[in-house]
Amino acid sequence: MTQHHNLIGGEWTPGASHAPNTNPSDLADVIGEYAQGGADDVQAAVAAATAAFPAWSNSGIQARHDALDKIGNEILARKEELGDLLAREEGKTRPEAIGEVARAGQIFKFFAGECLRLAGETVPSVRPGIGVEITREPIGVVGLITPWNFPIAIPAWKIAPALAFGNCVVLKPADLVPGCAWALAEIIHRSGIPAGVFNLVMGRGRVIGEALVNHPGVAAISFTGSVGVGRGIAEACVKSGKKVQLEMGGKNPQVVLDDADLQQAVELSAQSGFYSTGQRCTASSRLIVTDAIYPAFVEALRARLARIKVGDARAAGTDMGPVVSQAQLEQDLAYVEIAKAEGARLAAGGERVACHTGSGRQGFFLAPTLFVDTAPGMRINREEVFGPVASVIRVKDYEEALAVANDTPFGLSAGIATTSLKHATHFKRHSQAGMVMVNLPTAGVDYHVPFGGRKGSSYGPREQGRYAQEFYTTVKTAYTLA
């Protein structure tokens, strides 16, 4: 069994132990063994990053551009190979996985360009004979803690801007999906970036994550994951004065109005709620449907879900892969029972299923699950399930639909299906979400524009696009007497 080590100070360093990385589509398939680091590894990685920071932060922008562009080019050239690895370890279908890898490559190439576009301002002072310069500088050593559901894209959209703006990085990937992070680290290692600028420490979140968050040499933490963990990180960072950026949960609404194109509304609801096995923070798990279209929508969506083929993520013809782990499967099934107990009516799914290819492989397969006749106050409509489970809420009209859509502690993404320009325009302005989709799935965003939400979904500056500089740089104002 191949062992994969941590990358610390430019050297591949064994952890105290190694843990197996198992394919959720085929529990007999072990991808490899990956290092389980400890607090000492975090200390060493931060020390290496700290030592590398002075030279890297003052390096030429052309050198940083060339390194990031090289990384992006290799990711794109290997997108099918890396996509197969992603599908194998996370359970996303192979086409989706290849698309995610391509996005990671595009992100690195975009931020290669940002190395050359970082600008400042020169303004006159209110005092005669004095000039004022406003510039951006890197913040130092950045700790990045990433989730399992996008195991290469989310690390990419944190690593690339951090490096582009002159910071040094310690990456702690999700323990469930170390393979993609290791492959990305290996590409970065060969890019020409100096030793210590980028470091990878794999292992348990309670060990590696806590050590990163509490390390006095770490200037900032960017985290994507659960609400509970995110709030704990925010509290610790505020106490120690660290800059913090959090992307957390979602309970995203998809509104379907009476005037919507029925087939379009059904397709975007299926895409949003069930593809990627519903394991996206932008997935629509609350389908808010107005009276006149409700019966036809429910029947058409049930028929659409019946055509979704669940099975091996890497097999041709699979539409939806497995749930990522046994623990996640148990959580999904627990919410199915909670919904039933609260009076929701099960219209589709709700149980484990066999692989559609008939291979006999044992995996964490769950049928696309739909509840109807649900109420906004039910737990199924308040709490993030993070699986292929969605519920339909019936409302009277647009005004009630908007109120129900906004009645959530989250605010990441929201969608509306309508042919009414009036309602679409009003929804874009009054939806309490960071991202709004009109006649599009709620899951699916571009790499060159800001990503983030409101309320309990996000905290701190936006990720991606030019807005990433708000987190990964600090502003300096300098005065000069002429």
Account of the 3D structure:
It is built from 14 helices and 23 strands. The longest helix has 24 residues, at 94-117. With 482 residues, the protein is of the alpha/beta class. The chain is globular and about 70 Å long. It has a seven-stranded mixed β-sheet, sandwiched between helices. The protein has a six-stranded mixed β-sheet with strand order 10-9-8-11-12-22, with helices on both faces. The protein has two domains: 3-248 and 457-481, Aldehyde Dehydrogenase, Chain A, domain 1, CATH 3.40.605.10; 252-438, 3-Layer(aba) Sandwich (Aldehyde Dehydrogenase, Chain A, domain 2). The model has no long low-confidence stretch (mean pLDDT 96). A hairpin with a 5-residue loop joins strand 6 (121-124) and strand 7. GO terms for molecular function: 4-(hydroxymethyl)benzenesulfonate dehydrogenase activity; oxidoreductase activity, acting on the aldehyde or oxo group of donors, NAD or NADP as acceptor.
Essential attributes:
482 residues; alpha/beta; Aldehyde Dehydrogenase, Chain A, domain 1; Aldehyde Dehydrogenase, Chain A, domain 2; 2 domains; seven-stranded mixed β-sheet; six-stranded mixed β-sheet; 23 strands; 38% helix; globular
**N- to C-terminal distance:** 67 Å
| Spatial strand order of the main sheet | 15-16-17-14-13-19-20
Question: Which CATH class of the largest domain?
Answer: Alpha Beta
Q: Roughly how much helix do the residues carry, as a percent range?
A: 25-40%
Counting copies of identical and different chains, the oligomeric state is: single chain
Overall domain count: 2
User: How many beta-strand segments?
Assistant: 23
| CATH fold node name of the largest domain | Aldehyde Dehydrogenase, Chain A, domain 1
Kindly name the structural category.
alpha/beta
Give the rounded overall mean pLDDT: 96
| Radius of gyration of CA atoms, rounded to a whole number | 23 Å
- Helix segment count? 14
Gross geometry? globular
- Full CATH superfamily name of the largest domain: Aldehyde Dehydrogenase, Chain A, domain 1
Largest beta-sheet details? 7 strands, mixed
Organism: Alicycliphilus denitrificans
Protein name: 4-(hydroxymethyl)benzenesulfonate dehydrogenase
Catalytic activity: 4-(hydroxymethyl)benzenesulfonate + NAD(+) = 4-formylbenzenesulfonate + NADH + H(+)
Subunit structure: Homodimer.
